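Lecture 7 notes: from sequence to structure.

We start with a single chain of 428 residues. Read the sequence below before looking at the structure.
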Amino acid sequence: MSEPSLLMLPFFSASLKEVLILHPASTLFVPRTALIMGESPKLAHMIWPRPVATGLPNDGFVSDFSGMEKDTMHEMQNDTVKYRVFAGTWNVGGLTPPDDLELEDWLDMKANSYDIYVLGFQEIVSLNARNVLGPKKRSVSVKWNSLIGDALNKRREEEERAALRRHQEQKETFRCVASKQMVGIFVSVWARSALCRHVRHPAVSCVGAGVLGRLGNKGAVSVRFLLHGTSFCFVCCHLASGGEDGDALLRNADAADILSRTSFHGHGPEEHLLPKKILDHDRVVLLGDLNYRVAMDDGEARQLVRARKWSMLLEGDELLMELSKGRQFDGWREGLVTFPPTYKYHRDSDQFYWCAVDGGNNLTGGERRHRAPAWSDTDTFPKRCDRILWRGKGIKQLRYERCGGYRLSDHRPVRAVFHAVCEVLEGC
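Now the structure, written as tokens:
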């Protein structure tokens, strides 16, 4: 008789410390640590069931994987292995995605060459008082996860059916490693199924930096895990908006608050050996709507955009100034920004918002003087917000670009591709 499948039931507390496993043949819950420590050999090999549209546990879960037999190690030399990591960020403007939204282009599925996907969203719900203070709209994050899973696995499901007809080996799929929502901020991490058994000690941390410096309309959701013997941390941010003098300092303060207050608390005998703070990890990627803008005369900014001289806009870029001066982003790096502005567009259009109002029919004189294209978020003062930064040795950015084909919101998604080197430890 085959061994009954296991059901892993995550029990969520503020620190995500408990995960229980229910064996169908028993009425007892077995602590997850017992399986990891080998105290229950019969159940020692467990597999997290594949997330599907109707089967995702909820908007926030963390899972460990074991029992996988196949590896996807690439270029292994001298006890290291290199993986391709896809990171993407998109402010979706509080709009619920339609059922037929296809993410394949943004996720670059034609390349079929990435091992890990990390997708960060901002404003998956409107940032009104009800959503900020009330219960989470979990259905929205579940829908986004379903769309992501469909996009990542659609081609593979077709290949699997074809392979079965030809009696060939089935292709692997992607599985969700971690997923967490805080008000409008949502992060979802996926890995190839054969790689999942090497993903250990996943954990999440949420830091609200919005209203009163604590509410979740602004802030960050962070995910950490060990891949083989190397620690990774991905930070999805939505920093303070505003284009007045001194608002850049508010964004700096948000970033400092996130780096200071984010802390990971897992479970198990190895937990005391794991990094607790963002900057303690070996490889770190920070992405999101950072809300830094272009600090230059509005008229000059308009001329540069009309001439498509994107590189000249970098001269007034607030975030690049912060990176060059150190401050809150000391040690962080960003690839060269060569893409057009990601904000502000008319919805369902490729037309910049300011192009339609430039004639003055829709704005007062004061507003007309300030409106200009930008690199993200909800006001229209000059700025560049949708950014992806990284730090740490053993990580190299290969691509950094905007995806212009998505018109769901007044923002355009951004993506980056990295090579990440991992140390391979015995038994990991």
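The domain at 51-423 is CATH 3.60.10.10 (Deoxyribonuclease I; Chain A). Keep this in mind for problem set 3.
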